[in-house]
Amino acid sequence: MVKGFTISTLIILSISVGYSQQHPGLLLTKESVVELRQGVEKFPLLKTSYLEAKAEVDAAMSRPISVPIPKDLPGGFTHEQHKNNFLMLQKAGVVFQISNDEKYAKWIKDVLLTYAAIYPTFDKHPATRSYAPGKFFWQCLNDANWLVYVSQAYDCIYDWLDKKTVNKLNKELFRPYAEYISIQNPQFFNRIHNHSTWGNAAVGMIGLVMDDKELIDWALNGLKIKVPGDIVKDNDGGAIQLKGQTEAGFFAQLDHSFSPDGYYTEGPYYQRYAMYPFLIFAEALANKKPELGILEYRNGLLIKAVFALVDQTNAAGEFFPINDSQKGMSLASRELVNALSMAYHYGGKNPQLLSLIQEQGRVPLTTSGLSAAKDIAAGLAKPYIFNSMELTDGANGDEGAIGIIRSKDLTLMMKYTKHGMGHGHFDRLSFLLYNGADEVIQDYGAARWVNIEHKDGGGYLKENNTWAKQTVAHNTLVVNKTSQFMGKVDDADKTSGTAYYFNAKNANVQIVSAKETNAYAGVAMQRTMAVLNIDGIENPLVLDLFNIQADKEESYDLPLYYMGELMSTNQKYTTNNTLTPMGENSGYQHLWTEAQGSMTGNLMQMTWFNKGKFYTMTSTVKAGDEMLLTRIGGNAPNYALRRDPGFIHRRKAGNTLFANLYERHGFYSRSDEIPVNSFTSITDLTVLHESADYVVVQFELKNGDKYRFAFSMNNKDEKTKHKVQIGNELIEWMGVSQFLKK
Amino acid sequence: MVKGFTISTLIILSISVGYSQQHPGLLLTKESVVELRQGVEKFPLLKTSYLEAKAEVDAAMSRPISVPIPKDLPGGFTHEQHKNNFLMLQKAGVVFQISNDEKYAKWIKDVLLTYAAIYPTFDKHPATRSYAPGKFFWQCLNDANWLVYVSQAYDCIYDWLDKKTVNKLNKELFRPYAEYISIQNPQFFNRIHNHSTWGNAAVGMIGLVMDDKELIDWALNGLKIKVPGDIVKDNDGGAIQLKGQTEAGFFAQLDHSFSPDGYYTEGPYYQRYAMYPFLIFAEALANKKPELGILEYRNGLLIKAVFALVDQTNAAGEFFPINDSQKGMSLASRELVNALSMAYHYGGKNPQLLSLIQEQGRVPLTTSGLSAAKDIAAGLAKPYIFNSMELTDGANGDEGAIGIIRSKDLTLMMKYTKHGMGHGHFDRLSFLLYNGADEVIQDYGAARWVNIEHKDGGGYLKENNTWAKQTVAHNTLVVNKTSQFMGKVDDADKTSGTAYYFNAKNANVQIVSAKETNAYAGVAMQRTMAVLNIDGIENPLVLDLFNIQADKEESYDLPLYYMGELMSTNQKYTTNNTLTPMGENSGYQHLWTEAQGSMTGNLMQMTWFNKGKFYTMTSTVKAGDEMLLTRIGGNAPNYALRRDPGFIHRRKAGNTLFANLYERHGFYSRSDEIPVNSFTSITDLTVLHESADYVVVQFELKNGDKYRFAFSMNNKDEKTKHKVQIGNELIEWMGVSQFLKK
What angle is formed at CA A550 by the lines to CA A544 and CA A554, rounded to 5 degrees? Predict the structure, then answer.
């Protein structure tokens, strides 16, 4: 299907040569400019956004034009100056169109002519460390950024310019620049990768402005030339050509980068980054080449992808920090300011998006932004309803997924996706849990302070590999103190987690279950999590059943990165006054053991306190189980890691089951000093049955109520009857699961 | 003066026998009730507060009356039931008066008669661990709480009750109960202590209700009987009789507990607790015995004390967590809800208080609350202006002080008070720094989770003594790894810090300087801090000059408990992968050394990041200086301590000066990922002169500007000329300090 569509679009392209050209036509149109001029007077969000942009441009124009010969790396003068230039040029273009004040057009013209003047005077940026060195920047990626933004500025003054200047700029600056980042650097342009998405968008957008059909074709369909054979990896170690890759260009990016649900295999942090060129070029194509139906491509994939991003956030709009992600990146980012308005305008005007746009407090100065600001001013905004959902991974949606369960204030996310390439973590079957915006069980995120020079220039720290990516840094099983796939990306990339069961139809019993059989040789793992609403308990309970089937006895560590202050446990432990790292590799070198204990009895309970709320984990204990209380931070010179606490449940076993139950309960305010419900409601948790096929557990509340949960792990036919003998009792149920009050 | 006043009040009392009695008359009056009835309809804050109280009382009345025979300790059933009873009775009284619905009066009557019925049936609470066991509670303190609250309820139904019931309750419950906590327990009632404040208020308030002049006299002037000789200490080890104490009763409490500025020697956390009985009894006296002029006593001390509390908060209304304090206790507490409205109504109707009351979101259901709610509804609220100020300690205001300097978003507090008795910390010359509500340099507070059973029943943890009180837990000098006064409270209580200089008249150069010569034998310390606003720097700089004059060489540790994540330092250090405690006592046993380095050059700079802002400390370095990066948490089983970071500047010297400069700079948002000004503006800091009499330092900014600060440490006459020779230059200035741009 995907292939066929690509061919048909080529046909459409070839017959669209005569399409009439208007400027502006990318993000603004003649019609929308008229409306925008009125809108900035009438609609508060648009007015604010416009005045902010105008003030920034006015400030930039008050300084002398500066187009330096390229020399520096990021952080250095020439890099930052060229970056600032493209941001200001784009804004100046919009301000010109809205204000109709020619001084803005003139400034853009002057700056562009300065670029045109120096462009032929040097070969390329002097830095050589990129696999694809750029012109004004050290890598083509930044030059593509430049062209994506500056195309928009050029589009805004194209009709205002005299023909001679247009010809000069087209021939001496833009066409050569577009060729530089495409045919002169196919190793950058012809990949399936976010770098190429930027490259395709840049070349395509300037092509649309200049009505240059060849550039548009390259952008949409890739180059028909081969990448020079000596360049096989990029600077991050990523392969230039994916195995079996036969296509390139924007359509190929769309085909390969997203699942049918709009999930991006690197996770939401990088999806946010990649969305800008995807959407901005798509919006330009929607305006300039509506016959392509780009926004309907793959069942409206791009709009779905925006919704997928929104659905991967906590109550503060922060993305789930899976894979390499800086925590705190959120719907407030500039990329999402564009994305949400665009998804609103082109995606059926879902009024729930308006409330999110309202929170952003600004809109893009485009047709989309106008549309959103207008409808917000008209009072159309509705709260965004966050639903439980499974988002599949893989181009065909059959390579794992993430499962998201929402229930009252709780958000549970379980991850069983593809590895996510170079930015992926070895974290299959890991989960994270939020209470509103508060992390309850955290994912560490990346070991990086993005762009903060103090921290190794703001790039990835070496601890990102040695800690953040390792399995023990996640809330999932570690076998024999080694990471999944022995920590090898190439191996992890070959397979994905396996979605087994996701059911959120019954709001009181929502279940996600997934399997992972490749991460550890001879060890089959299945995690089943159920979010349960029960009468008489204030918050939903989270049941967590981690089943392992293994050929032989192994050592299992199940970490839990709880956030907050440990209140108490019912188990005895001894604390260490001298802290030593837990191991030498696989991330253990970064963990200190603060305390340890041999667990006794059948039950372990641990309560912690975070941001006014209490939380308790109840776990079943088997003979020989140990508990370790850990602290992150060892072997991290220069304070590369946060000192966060963790808990490890350690067990030596072959086939086994870890059964846990998490409860949020009560509250405490430091100005009232009256703790309410500071103890868990759970008095017992028992495994009634565990085998390769079934698990049956029962738990009991303070009030004496007992509940039983039964689950079929290998047959998900909802019509099949299951029987399990427990002591004298024969338990029977139909379908995958049964949850009942005893 | 104080003595004289007490005598004259006795005279007034003796002639006021015939004062006519009206009910209600304590917190409500006949007149205010009429207004309150209208007010709950008209004024939103009052309405909300009334409806909340009514809903609580309705819920309580829907359950059977429960007045159990006393048995349990706090947390146990009988304790919590009696506590809940007094809270609900007080509210029911108010609801009765406002609603005029007799069901509330009848319920109060029924509950009181039940109390009267069981009162004679037992001797006292069975628990024996208090120095003053109570009747319904394990200690008289809680019985006094009961009586303070229930007096208010009784006042509300007094005129509604038949005479026979009044006589019965007076004779069989209230008078005996008042005698129990006074003449039967003088060791509780006749102290200068917050326990006795509660006792005095309780006996006084029920005396006012019953028009019982003897009780009122006891309450105001104490008992003329001697405390039994065998009780000399309370359960916290506090002395029953203060050295030289000759007075007792409410006036004596007022004379001894506060400084003339309204500062309470235990600090704001305990002041907040003690304020309730002080204010509630004073309000009752103001209504019932206006001739006492209680609110004008000691120049309006009680109202001043409320302002002093407000002035000891950060931008979130949280009290400075000095001495034993749980962090987060704030103006939102129930005690302050009463205090702020009362200070408003009786303290000259300062409209700045209204904005704080608005933030509290509720008002007391009293004349004061009515007054505040009414004026807020009338739009009279103004923002509270937080000013720089020095609050003296000691009954006469001559035993040290705290200095508070506010400048833009920064709040600096330096502490050089009395020790503060059993709840005091060994922290003279320590400081803390806020940026708005964010702690920049923290005081650890108490090692306690108040009322949280998980944590040793919610009381003080042993780490409160071994860590939180010790000098090394504070931002002040530790000599030879030993706490001030060798950690002995009795010794510390004998002296106070010495206020030397406080000047906030020039908003751009605000200075606090204080001395401490008793804490360490042979070591005289003086700390001078200046908050400086300089052109071209975004935030005020904090200059910190810690001068030491010592007989011989000592080992100095100057800790700094910065909050946030360490970004970088300009000094080389090595991190430890195995962490061991830094010492065996004086708090060092709780600190791990995470890293250490021998400092080189003349300058040490360290940058950290917290809540979106960057901070840098710049320090002068002397040959042999060492730096240690520390982490709290060693030797604290059961997770008694937070894992907070610290920095220690270590030096071996006799006379010396530690010169530091703190700068808040720039910002970073995780959704923008663009750090702004992440590096300090300070390029140099030099000590030009240090001696016993003078210190002169100079610092330099990135832009090349140089500033010089000179300070006279032993002569604060503003007319004296000072001369210091620095190399070839003779520096001259007049007065204590000079700050200038070079």
Answer: 90
